[in-house]
Amino acid sequence: MLFTADPVVVRGARAAAEAADAVVVSTGEECNDPAMIVVDLEQPDAMDHVRSLRSANPDTILVGHLSRPEQERWVAAERAGCDLVANRGSVGRQLKRLLLEGGRRRRFPLVDEADIAGRLGLLARVEQTPVGAVGVYRVDGRVTAIEDRCPHAGGELSAGKLDQCVLTCPLHGSQFHVGTGERLRGPADRDVTLYEVVHEQGRVQLIRTN
Fold first, then answer.
1. How many domains in the chain?
2. End of a domain among 59, 89, 104?
3. pLDDT at res. 200
4. pLDDT at 210
5. Is 97 in the same domain as 191?
6. Domain containing 80 — which CATH number?
7. DSSP summary character for residue 95
8. What pLDDT is stored for residue 94 in this prediction?
9. Are residues 90 and 114 in the same domain?
10. Helical segments of the chain, H only
């Protein structure tokens, strides 16, 4: 389902749908339970729109596009509920890949809520997940999950020191914000991946799209 009129994105989406034997529906047309929704993040009130779409479509892959890599808007869109943010020229390729892989968000149970009730900081390290080892934390009243491998030299981040929201790698001192995955200090040269989680059926579950 397209909430965009960008001609490059529309052409890419139609080509992806044709390759995957899917149907493209544009704004204003009826579509129940769409597999994917594409949103133009440069439209007015785009973030509010993303939050509304995420709330109404919890199992749909939500893709936002930008004409240029504007980091602040990119991160805001991910936090609002986008599973994927991409430059307009690459949206078609990304949609094709996701459609051919099944086109649905999937859940992986990380930890039982009863086991983490009342606890703060590091709640669990889950070694075997579809995305690799994951550290589960509660910071500022929110449960988050981040990749548990430092991008610098592969250190096990959950073995490092946690000071409020700042996690320090035990190997070389790189620091990350466990609520966002943001790199705060090197020698690591990128953020760590923050995974979306939901609380369902008494468990904290990781949302994955691949």
1. 2
2. 104
3. 78
4. 59
5. no
6. 3.40.50.2300
7. H
8. 87
9. no
10. 7-19, 46-56, 71-80, 91-100, 113-116
Do 86 and 74 have their domain in common?
yes
Strands (E), the chain: 2-3, 36-40, 61-66, 84-87, 106-112, 121-126, 134-139, 142-147, 161-163, 166-168, 175-177, 183-185, 194-195, 197-200, 203-208
Q: Under 8 Å CB-to-CB from 41, ≥6 apart: which residues? A: 47, 50, 64, 65, 66, 73, 77, 82, 85
Q: Which of 117, 87, 95 is nearest to 18 (CA)?
A: 95
CATH number of the CATH domain containing 200: 2.102.10.10
Residue 23 Ramachandran class (φ > 0 left, ψ -120 to 50 alpha, else beta): beta
pLDDT at residue 69 in the model: 77
Which structural domain range is residue 133 located in?
107-208
Cα–Cα distance for residue pair 158/124, rounded to 1 Å: 8
Check: CB of residue 46 under 8 Å from CB of residue 38: no
Q: How would you write the pLDDT of the chain (210 residues) with one tens digit per residue?
A: 999 999 999 999 999 999 888 899 887 677 777 889 999 999 999 999 999 998 888 878 899 999 987 888 887 888 788 888 889 999 999 898 888 877 777 778 899 999 999 999 999 999 888 888 999 999 988 999 999 999 999 999 999 999 999 999 999 999 999 999 999 999 999 999 999 898 877 889 898 765
As to burial, measured by CB atoms within 10 angstroms (0-12 exposed, 13-18 middle, 19+ buried), residue 164 is exposed
Q: Are residues 112 and 148 in the same domain?
A: yes
